[in-house]
Structure formats: structure tokens, C-alpha cells
Amino acid sequence: MNNWIVFAVALAVTLFLLLPTLATNIYSKEPAHKPYWENPAARAKILTNVSAVGILAGRGSEGIVIVGYRDQLNATNRAELLAVLKEVINAARGYTIYLAPWATDNATRAYLSLLYSGKMSLDDYLRGVLYNASSTTQKVDQAYALAVAIASTYGAYAGAPTIQIPPIYVAVFRNDTSYVVYEPFTLGRDRTYADWLQWVKTALENLRQGQGKVTP
Fold it and tell me: How far lies 63's CA from each of 93, 180, 196, in Å?
């Protein structure tokens, strides 16, 4: 009998404390933590920056695809990189596509500057045509800054202690959803650019099937 009395008193106290809280609407109707991609200010800044910095590789109405990567003229796998870039551009048809390459060595930085300045065509670049160059443009460094901004915004949600800048990434911003796909080259998962490409193709296909239109 005593146990029932104790239970009844505890229940009454709980209701006494809870009901005023509900009545005054202290509990927010908004989630305590919004999804990592729900950052419209960061999204707008990234898209503004890439439109000023990136190399236009295609036009479309579905949204914007950014392909950022580190280039290096003397890399043994550069032919694979160029082949994968062509595949990504083809897979992302229907989007406006920007390439945003950067480099750390002076020779490649100068070479990329020809592309950024329009002195070399995108077609020649993707075919691996080489030109002599000596001067550099700030857009090479701005492309790296863009990679850092995207990784910081969309790559830190897993709780990694530091932001890793991948050698290549894709960021997909569709017009019909705030959901953003960030697909970086991931060590331990990807051994080659071709490995990474399969994840990108899958992500693009999933988006076309409606992923992101309802919060995952």
C-alpha cells in the first residue's frame, strides 16, 4: 500500500513540474541540431566563390557540381586523373559543372594558370596537351581555399579531429533540395581515382532517384 502512495505522489510531482513547461511552450518545435548540410549561408558563399574561380565544364538546370582536385604534371597517375575527370563531366550532365584544380609545385601552378586565364582550352587540358608557362594566377590558390571551405563545411560532420583535404572531391548542390553530397577521395576506401569514381557515379544516380528530397 505504501508503495502505491509513493508512486502516486511521485506522479503528481512530475505532472506538476511538466505541465507548466508544456503550457508555456518552452520545448522548441525545432530540432536541437540541424543536419550538417543545413547551412544556407555557407552554401551560398561556396557557390558564389566557385562561379568566380572555377572553370566551367558544362551547363545544366539540375544544380551545380564542383570537381576539385590537386594536379601535378609529373604524377605517374595523371593520365588516370584526366580520364576520370572526363567521366565525371559525362556523369554529371544536366548540372552546371565547375572544375577547381590546384597545385603545390610551381610548374603545375603555372600550367593551371593557362587554363584559368583562358590561354589553354579545357579540351586541350583534358587531352593532356602541354604548354610552357611561367606566371601564375591567384585562382590556383583560391581553388585550394575552396577545397578547404567545402571540406570544413561538409566533411567535418563525422567528428574527425582535423579536416583532411582530399586529392580529389565532388560536391553536388541540387536546385530541388538543400541536401548536399560531398564525395571526397577517401584513404582506406579508395586506392585509385577509378575507385573513387564509382562512388561519385552512385551518388549522382541516387540524387536523380530522389535522395535528399526527404531528409535522410
Answer: 10, 11, 21
**Contacts by residues 183-189 (CB-CB < 8 Å, ≥ 24 positions apart):** 184/151, 184/155
Domain range list for the chain: 35-207
pTM of the model: 0.81
Assess whether pLDDT exceeds 80 at residue 131. yes
Q: How many CB atoms lie within 10 A of CB 82?
A: 16
Residue 174 carries which DSSP code? Answer: E
pLDDT tens digits, residue range 112-130? 999 999 999 999 999 999 9
**HSE toward the beta carbon, residue 57, CA cutoff 13 A:** 30
Class of domain 35-207: alpha beta
Fill in the amino acid letter for 69. Y
Question: Could you read off the pLDDT of 165-191 as tens digits, one per residue?
Answer: 999 999 999 999 888 999 999 999 999
Q: Estimate to the nearest angstrom the gap between the alpha carbon of 149 and the chain centroid.
A: 9
* pLDDT band for position 50 (cuts 50, 70, 90): very high
Is 131 within 8 Å of 112 (Cβ atoms)?
A: no
How far from 176 is each of 57, 85, 88, 173, 204, CA to CA, in Å?
21, 25, 21, 9, 14
Structural contact between residues 183 and 169, judged by C-beta atoms closer than 8 angstroms: yes
The grid coordinates listed for 21 are 513547461
Nearest C-alpha neighbor of 207 from the set 182, 181, 183, 184: 181
pLDDT at 155: 84
